[in-house]
Amino acid sequence: MNAISAVVYREAKIRATNFTFIFWDLFFPLLYMLVFGVGINTAIGAPTGLGNVNYNEFFLAGILAMASFAIASNTSWSFFLDRDNGIFYEMLTYPMSRSEYLLGKVIFNVLISIGQAALTLVVGRLVLGIRVQWAKLPLLLTAMAIGTAGWFFFYAIFALRIRRNDLFNSITSVFYFVFMFASSMFYPLEPLPAWFRITALLNPITWEIDWLRYTSIGIGNFHSILLEGVAFLVFALACFAYAVRCLQQQE
Amino acid sequence: MSEFALEVENLVKVYASRGKPPIRAVDGMSFRVPRGIIFGLLGPNGAGKSTLLRMLSTLTLPTDGTAKILGYDVVKKPIEVRKRISSVIQATAVELFLSVKDNLLTYARFQGLDKATAARRADALIVEFQLGPEVDRKVQDLSGGFRRRVQVAKVFMVDTPVLFLDEFSTGMDPILKRQVMNLLRAEVEKGRTIILTTQVLSEAEDLCDDILIIDRGKQIARGDLNTLKLLSHGVYEINLAFDHLPENIQAEIAALSPIRSTIEANAIDLTLKIEEDRVMDVVSALSRNRHVLRVEVRGASLEDIFVELTTREGKELA
């Protein structure tokens, strides 16, 4: 337990004393909501087929998922920084197991993403008047926690297996584009062409977004949401198992 | 608990990469290191020193053989081993985004030190390593030398019984290096065991109680400085300074087939393996009809021994 708390302490120290990290972790998704979201909301109003839900409300779950995705990506990139200056290897000789190291990192990520979600919900309610279903808040925060953990483990696999920073950056740029746009983050899937809809339904970020949308503004069918939630959990666990294996192979 | 700080038995590390022949970075090493000494691992680049240290510090798994730290197997009980070691690895392993003080405190946290002790030790080390003016600066804004100070200072935050230092003095100025060497000696007096690698042989000569010379993953020689000097019996260092450098001196030196030689300004420095009674013949031959300002003849230094042993044919001694 001491080892995990030490990893969390280290991550917190690094992130809390660096303005760039604070901006990317906490405020960037918020700016997306306030600039992009408000712009689209003003231009098109309510997305098709979702009743009286306006775009700001629809986009809220997308913003939350984007935050969990971005926080995970930023943290996994830190593997490169740590590896380049050698501290990564030194840490692997500290009195902790490699799983504890990974768990410490993911716990910190989850805490950040929950903080970010709280900030987004409050700003969304106070500034944009989003009607948040507060009763489902525990479920929403659970979705944020599992979502962030899943994406962190997913990214960690690539960060640990790839040796070159530029290659990793290229891959994450492609991931950003594919995962975010081929999903229900920015638009409802129903009016989209069949091939696009199927691709989006196979995308784990869609599962996370649908879960977040159901728990934040109540849109979606509980049974399909449950199925997507379980699918995401399996995805996260598989990524965790493989990420631990990749970490064991580091030497 | 084991009476040895380190027990290594037939340790092997093979690196295999697709399409290339496997590399035996460590090739069947066996040795034991008693507690409370400074043990030096010496060898040229690529000898296997760092790989050996990485296995001993649980960073890399051995391909074969066993290694134990204070009786704990590095493969079977890695956490127990990690609780008992601290390492300075070759790269400047520091937390770039943290301040100097936070680097020390974060390290202490990982090692399970309580807050008050950590703060007290950090303050003392900041003075000791002359890091005072930089204490609140992020390490990413410091020079390489200062980063190294922070890295080395960290291992003095804790009392782990075994300390691994991989070329610890890289980037340190001579005064600080001397201070750190004194600190290391003080730690050994307290009972810690220090395993260090270095390519600065004078450093090993000054510090190490016991030395293992390795090359191409194998042990070449083992012992304290005096024992190693015996292994290198018949090696002499001759230093001559002339009023001006003789024209054909290079050819004359080459004809003697020295182990190593350097010519600098008007002085020559050569290491020869010859019979004792021939040493003065060589000196007089090189001095004949020349104005010699200084003559020095010494027995082998660690550097001579090292060069002689790592270039010798059929390197299986130990």
Word description of this protein:
The complex is a heterodimer of chains A (251) and B (318). Chain A has 251 residues and is mostly helical. Chain A is 79% helix and 0% strand. Chain A has one domain (2-248). Chain A has helices spanning 2-16, 19-44, 55-84, 87-91, 98-128, 137-161, 165-181, 194-201, 204-217, 222-248. In chain A, α3 (55-84) crosses α9 (204-217), α6 runs antiparallel to α9 and α6 (137-161) packs parallel to α10 (222-248). Chain B has 318 residues and is α/β, with parallel strands linked by helices. Chain B folds into two domains: 4-224, Rossmann fold (3-Layer(aba) Sandwich), CATH 3.40.50.300; 233-299, Alpha-Beta Plaits. A six-stranded mixed sheet of chain B has the order 6-7-8-3-9-10, with helices on both faces. Chain B has a four-stranded antiparallel sheet with strand order 2-1-4-5. Chain B has a four-stranded antiparallel sheet with strand order 12-13-11-14, sandwiched between helices. The longest helix of chain B has 16 residues, at 174-189. Chain A binds chain B through residues 2-3, 6, 9-10, 13-14, 17-18, 81, 85-87, 89-97, 251, and chain B through 54, 57-61, 78-79, 82-83, 85-87, 89-99, 102, 106, 109-112, 138.
CATH-defined fold name of the largest domain in chain B? Rossmann fold
> Please, how many helices of chain B?
11
How does the overall form of chain A come out from the CA principal axes? globular
**Can you tell me the CATH superfamily of the largest domain in chain B?**
P-loop containing nucleotide triphosphate hydrolases
- Main pleated sheet of chain A: none
Q: Tell me the radius of gyration of chain B.
A: 23 Å
Oligomeric composition of the shown chains: heterodimer
- How many strands of chain B? 14
Spans where pLDDT lies below 50 across 5 or more residues of chain A: none
